[in-house]
């Protein structure tokens, strides 16, 4: 019995298709990273991984879901990669790039098996740096990495960017073409290039974390596996550039926020908002690690990620919600808005000011954002306004805002929260 053809255990058609989608979400990045190490082209690697997915979509509903779906997809993708390399005229040269001293063509497949069956190691990191190459625009780097690293759809990426879905699709296609045309190698940058390329990589890692922490679409409120992958990549980056404050600041931010994940979900998967969480369920080990990373980032200087981590630390240090230092949080958001201005930062400042100085002051800031095009389809804007209006006793207006937020969100769990808030008004 081989990994490519294990015994099926399930024959339900719908369940099999759901399994394909679930496994793809979990394994696509590792598939692309592992194949890219062989074919040296992330676009081709994604195509091979997609081929494996199509084969699974065809076979699993008919034959059953294999016992180890991830291994099945990797074995299938590996065989497709081997076939591709065999068709290339410079097949032996490609194998030589892997450091293989092959004496005969028949010895190629075992070596390829070893290359793909090894632990992924830094391949995921190579994938991020390749997708974030300077030949691409910042928007294209982020979009391509989210696509390759997380397997996110163009719709989900578009919501993260607050831009139209066709725009993201074009960015991804053009980015892959550019990487191929410029012959960008699948490797980590040279030390002298690392600093210049780090900022866009940090941005990508944080967007990956955010997609896991607050899923933009689907039935799940959180996707912990994405958070874990983002934290792993962040720690590796911090190790590569130990004197870069923002690498440590990002690690601190992610770890402190991730510490809340056990308390963010109720018994039935329902969301539990920050002020309602049982803080005894927060992961104190992650909090300690995050605070240590924050101290290191602040000692080195810090920037926007360090400021956001300092805000998260205010919540982490409060044993009870009512102990939260909202005045400090509002002050930190004021600094963040100066250092890294954006409508989302200003909306978060509205929340903090609303808690520190009263809902009327917070609503004044939120109302000023009503004309921001970037927030036109952002559900958190009406949600924040709804909360502030409810606290002011303007319940009918609050109800309409929560209903508007529910109509805008693509996440079913979040929609339920907004509708419940609307009903309570």
In brief, what are we looking at here?
By secondary structure, the chain is an all-alpha fold.
Task: Set down the secondary structure blueprint.
Blueprint: H1 13-39, H2 42-63, H3 69-87, H4 91-97, H5 108-117, H6 123-131, H7 138-150, H8 154-161, H9 165-181, H10 191-213, E1 217-218, H11 224-240, H12 245-258, H13 284-300, H14 304-317, H15 326-339, H16 343-357, H17 359-367, H18 380-391, H19 395-408, E2 410-411, H20 412-424
Parallel strand pairs: 1-2
Helix pairs in contact: 1-2, 1-3, 1-6, 2-3, 6-7, 7-9, 7-10, 8-9, 10-11, 10-12, 11-12, 12-13, 12-14, 13-14, 14-15, 15-16, 16-17, 16-18, 17-18, 18-19, 19-20
Mean pLDDT: 84
What is the tally of helical segments? 20
Structural class: mainly alpha
Proportion of residues in β-strands:
under 5%
Order of helices and strands: HHHHHHHHHHEHHHHHHHHHEH
- Low-confidence segments, given as residue ranges, are 1-11, 99-121
Spatial strand sequence of the major β-sheet: 1-2
User: Which term fits the overall shape?
Assistant: globular
E-strand count:
2
What about the largest sheet? 2 strands, parallel
What's the helical proportion of residues? Answer: 55-70%
Rg on CA atoms, Å? 23 Å
CA-CA gap between termini: 60 Å
Organism: Microbispora corallina
Domain RNA polymerase sigma-70 region: 29-90
Keywords: Sigma factor, Transcription, Transcription regulation
Domain RNA polymerase sigma factor 70 region 4 type: 129-179
Overview of this protein structure:
This protein has helices spanning 13-39, 42-63, 69-87, 91-97, 108-117, 123-131, 138-150, 154-161, 165-181, 191-213, 224-240, 245-258, 284-300, 304-317, 326-339, 343-357, 359-367, 380-391, 395-408, 412-424; strands spanning 217-218, 410-411. The chain has 425 residues and is mainly α. It has a two-stranded parallel ribbon with strand order 1-2. α6 packs antiparallel against α7. The model is unreliable at 1-11 and 99-121 (pLDDT under 50).
């Amino acid at each position: 019995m081989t990994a490519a053809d294990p015994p099926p255990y399930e024959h339900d058609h719908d369940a099999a298709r759901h399994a394909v989608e679930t496994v793809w979400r979990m394994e696509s990045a590792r598939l692309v990273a592992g194949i890219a190490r062989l074919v040296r082209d992330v676009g081709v690697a994604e195509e091979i991984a997609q081929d494996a997915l199509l084969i699974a979509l065809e076979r699993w509903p008919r034959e059953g879901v294999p016992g180890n779906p991830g291994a099945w997809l990797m074995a299938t993708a590996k065989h497709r990669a081997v076939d591709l390399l065999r068709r290339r005229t410079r097949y032996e040269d490609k194998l030589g790039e892997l450091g293989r001293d092959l004496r005969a063509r028949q010895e190629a497949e075992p070596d390829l098996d070893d290359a793909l069956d090894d632990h992924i190691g830094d391949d995921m990191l190579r994938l991020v740096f390749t997708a974030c190459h300077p030949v691409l625009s910042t928007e294209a780097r982020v979009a391509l990495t989210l696509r390759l690293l997380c397997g996110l759809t163009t719709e989900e990426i578009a919501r993260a960017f607050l831009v139209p879905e066709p725009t993201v699709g074009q960015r991804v296609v053009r980015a892959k073409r550019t990487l191929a045309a410029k012959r960008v190698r699948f490797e980590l940058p040279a030390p002298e290039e690392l600093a210049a390329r780090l900022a866009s990589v940090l941005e990508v890692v944080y967007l990956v974390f955010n997609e896991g922490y607050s899923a933009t679409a689907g039935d799940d409120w959180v996707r912990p596996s994405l958070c874990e992958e983002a934290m792993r990549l962040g720690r590796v980056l911090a190790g590569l550039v130990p004197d870069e404050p923002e690498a440590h600041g990002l690690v601190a931010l992610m770890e402190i926020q991730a510490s809340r994940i056990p308390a963010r979900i109720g018994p039935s998967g329902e969301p539990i908002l920050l002020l309602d969480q049982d803080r005894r369920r927060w992961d104190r080990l992650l909090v300690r690690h995050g605070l240590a990373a924050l101290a290191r980032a602040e000692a080195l200087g810090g920037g926007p990620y360090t400021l956001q981590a300092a805000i998260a630390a205010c919540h982490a240090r409060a044993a009870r919600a009512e102990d939260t230092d909202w005045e400090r949080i509002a002050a930190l958001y004021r600094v963040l808005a100066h250092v890294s201005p954006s409508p989302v930062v200003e909306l978060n400042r509205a929340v903090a000011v609303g808690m520190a100085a009263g809902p009327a002051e917070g609503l004044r800031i939120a109302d000023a954002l009503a004309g921001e095009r970037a927030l036109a389809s952002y559900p958190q804007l009406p949600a924040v306004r709804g909360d502030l209006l409810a606290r002011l006793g303007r319940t009918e207006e609050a109800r309409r805002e929560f209903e508007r937020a529910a109509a805008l969100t693509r996440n079913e769990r979040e929609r339920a929260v907004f509708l419940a808030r609307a009903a309570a008004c």
